[in-house]
Structures are given as structure tokens and as C-alpha cells.
Amino acid sequence: MNKSFFEDITYKDQDFTKVRLEKAEYENCIFEDCNFADAYVDNINFTACHFSHCNLSNANISHTVFNEVSFSYCKLTGLHFEHCNPILLSLSFDHCSLILASFYQLQLKNIEFTECKLIEVDFTEANLSNAQFGGCDLNKAIF
User: Facing residues of 10 across strands?
Assistant: First the structure.
């Protein structure tokens, strides 16, 4: 069964805790002021997408593809990025809260975190070659 394909769409003020985001491929889409807290965002492909002012705290991201995906001013508390698809994984974060998130054993070469709260984040065995942590709070982060 082929996944649906959505391109160049802006999703604004959507609550995906009530109506689940379709398991599909999303390319060059924008998610603005959306709520994904505790939602199922598993088995979805995001390519060149941008999340702005969204809440993805404790969302299920198992087997999800994040390829060239950026997050700005998002709440990502408790996300387990090691459960997402590691192939083509490419992320950047700007002014995000990633408290208690986990990047265990991931290849995160050249990842950028700018002005983020990375409190108690697990980077154990992650490859952080050339990673940038400009202005971040890394209190109790594990490396």
C-alpha cells in the first residue's frame, strides 16, 4: 500500500491529538502552532519540513523519517529520537525545549541546536561530530 504524498502545504493551528495526522509523506510542508503532544506521529516521512511553535512532547515518533527537518520555538519534551528512522536523519533546532529528550546512539553529525533547553537530554554514544550548541542550556545532559 502506497503512502499518500503531500507537498507545499501549511498546517496551522491543528490539534493532531484529536484527529491523527495521516501516515503519509510530507515534503516542504510547514506545521505552525500545531499540537502533537502524546500523539502518534509514527511511520510518517517528513522531508524538508519546518515545525514552528508546535508541541510534540511525548509524541510517538517510531520509524518516522526526519530528513532535513527544522524545529523552531517548539516543545519536544521527552521525545525519543532513537526510535525514529535513522536513515537520512537530518535535524536542526532553534529556540526549542528538548527537556528529557533522547538521541541515544544516533548519527548527529553537523546537527545544530541554537538557544535550546537541552536539560537532561541523553546523547549517550551519539556521534556529535561538528555539532553546534550555540547558547544552549545543557544542564545535566548526558554525553
Answer: 30
Which amino acid type is present at position 121? Answer: V
pLDDT digits (tens, 9 = 90+) for 74-109: 999 999 999 999 999 999 999 999 999 999 999 999
| 79: in domain | yes
2 domain residue, yes or no: no
DSSP 3-state of 83: helix
Tell me which long-range contacts 15-22 makes (C-beta under 8 A, separation of at least 24). 16/41
pLDDT digits (tens, 9 = 90+) for 25-81: 999 999 999 999 999 999 999 999 999 999 999 999 999 999 999 999 999 999 999
CA angle at residue 89 from 85 to 91, to 5 degrees?
125
Task: Please report, for the domain that includes residue 51, its CATH number.
Answer: 2.160.20.80
